[in-house]
Amino acid sequence: MKRALPVLVLSVAGLIPVWRYAPSHDTGPAPAPAQAAPASTPPASSSGGTTTTVVAGSLVDTEKGPVRVEVTFDGDEIASVRMLRQPDHPQTTAAVPKLIEETLRAQSADIDTVSGATVTSDGYKESLQAALDAKG
Fold it and tell me: In this structure, which long-range contacts are made by residues 73-81, counting pairs with CB atoms below 8 Å and at least 24 apart in sequence?
């Protein structure tokens, strides 16, 4: 009888992790994601004589979630960048403004990775480069 109580307590303690276990939705290596072709809008002429073009980069699946950017060009210059899809993660939320600011400063996809958001930064740069390539 003296052993029954410790055995019962240890059995319950051993089962608690099993009860609390939440399986991952990731089932291992997935097949290569099909990337959508970059979408672009036809050039629109603005009043200044320059052409404004909006190009969406490819959808990049990262381990944190999908990333897709949209780039607005004013002539050949990157006028703005907007995230169409991004992972719902605190580091991503903090990194996006830095990535966009760096893109506008560099006028290319050759930008630094944001510390703490490496996966999102890499997906951002890949989608951005696809948009730049689609623009030509």
Answer: 73/135, 74/46, 74/50, 75/50, 75/51, 77/107, 78/103, 78/104, 78/107, 79/52, 80/104, 81/128
CA proximity to 78, closest of 118, 58, 45, 50: 50
Element at 103 (helix H, strand E): helix 90-106
Decide which of 16 and 38 is more confident.
16
Closest CA to 52 of 64, 44, 61, 60: 44
pLDDT in tens, 68-107: 999 999 988 999 999 999 888 888 888 999 999 999 999 9
Q: State the Cα–Cα distance between residues 130 and 35, nearest whole angstrom.
A: 10
Tell me the pTM.
Answer: 0.64
